[in-house]
Amino acid sequence: MKKILILILTVLLYPGYVCLYAQDAQFKGSFTNYDVDSEQAVLNKIEADTDPKTEKVVLDGIALKFEYMDYSLIYIVDKYKVIPVYFSDQKGGRYVFDYYVDNDKVVKIVLVMKKGEIINKQVYPEEKDTNPKE
Q: What φ, ψ does residue 95 adopt, rounded to 5°?
């Protein structure tokens, strides 16, 4: 009798537990910010910045190999979805760029980290020098 009662309670409570777990999971940030249009915008920009001969992405004058996008770190700044993208150079140095996406277009790229050093320099669109040296 106990086994039948446990089985009935399990069958009745399991769907509720699954629903509660699924709701809780969205707050843990696992893939809640994933957006196909944003991903495609970043991939299109990477492809546009890739030299077809070397198959390296040229950013800030440096030829880099695309590694991956980190979906667990996607965040929102103002109205832009910001996607961290990881690259490496020929010597294994790691670079992290933040791609700012508005709907389905990359509007800004910021070099966040270069070989472990925090940079935070906008590389696309290139900022114009407001105080030209004479």
A: -130, 140
